[in-house]
């Protein structure tokens, strides 16, 4: 290596040549070794189960039956309503979340209380959906003496007792479920829109004003057209894909008598086949998988060009388009913060009452007490579940991070069609519903491991977490500036030394993957329901089991929900800025 002065500046010439390429990019043999763990996990626990499900949907006892299972599944009573309800979730809920997310991001951007508003809105995103279901079931309790929302409805309409419109009745249960989902997801939309707004270059607004444009023109030409319209597509797609996983919320929040009126494909597939492979269940699973994959492909067309948002040229303070929001928007932000606090207050207040008081009357009718917490913790079961879930989430997160780093590093240097195909395959693996692969996975675990053990449960979590982690980390590596990659190559003695140096440059993405994977495993219900056993039951499964006697055990259930929510809320709140920074490092390539 030599240094030559060019126009007064030292220039580094790499005179070692192509052999030094091996320092940054592993050889073919090393690349295969790096990709092998991820390939085995995805092939054995995602790809093969999907193919097995497709095979089961068109065969019966090894005989080809064509579309017979599909016809039987679609002809079953209520299936048409289930499919329609699933489509309604995928269209209406994302529209509401996207609209509210943008308005609240804009309303809280420059106001003094904006940080507090965003903090309040983010908290529900960290809660387990089991806890969200418990919280809103407490609010919508049909008895006005216990349910706050029912009491308010009774006061507003002048009805009493059974005459009050029941939000958990057959007619309104889907509306109640959607309201809970919107409450849980708006905070994510606010974070994404805030990141987009902060990256809007002020020169665009200046140019619009220079040509005589007013506030309306600035909004459209300097914000929506260059960036925010695409960000809307990203948020809408993310929430739409999220609605395909409403299983936890529906299972916990809906009483058994109205569950069929609230059912979507996520629940119907589980009701049809559970953790086994059946013909009709496989057919429904294939329909669901095709719908989700099609939605993912459409979303990828937008995400590819929409994300990440461009880096701001000017500091946020210098952006004239970022004036403080007008009074109506500030009032909207303040009102949303209050509304978002109400469910949290209901959950905490209910937990601060004894089991008898919580079951007999509303939390506002009795003095607070720690009796429910005492009953919960004295048995010792809670501590065992907390310890097991903490160990499971930590072990899975560490394993996913290692496997994903090893696989993402060689994949980051792919370009052109190979990179695009890899990204689409990873995104497809991310959105595969676990209910679709449950039966075949249990078959695999029955051979490799004993089903229902902690090792089997952890293995499924790792396989489901690796695609998302590889996708994020691959994009983070690929988005590193060329000079940093070159510096890592020149200082690294071998490719793994280069990998360590580049990983330090991707700390936001690594932190985002770690926090999201830990929270996902901690908050999980469906994987635990399908793959756990008596000695490997996570916390979410325990809370869901307590809902069988919901009214009688509401105080203890609320206390358990509060305890289960503390750790994920703390992690997400502390890392919320790093989460967004780590996730905006690229789209499908």
From TrEMBL:
GO biological process: transmembrane transport
Domain ABC transmembrane type-1 residues, every copy: 83-299, 386-575
Membrane topology: Multi-pass membrane protein
Keywords: Cell membrane, Membrane, Transmembrane, Transmembrane helix, Transport
Gene Ontology CC: one annotated term: plasma membrane
Chain ranges passing through the membrane: 27-51, 87-107, 119-140, 172-193, 227-247, 282-303, 331-352, 382-409, 421-438, 458-477, 509-531, 551-575
Subcellular location(s) per record: Cell membrane
Main location per the UniProt record: membrane
Family the entry assigns: Belongs to the binding-protein-dependent transport system permease family.
Protein name (record): ABC transporter permease subunit
Gene source species: Micromonospora globbae
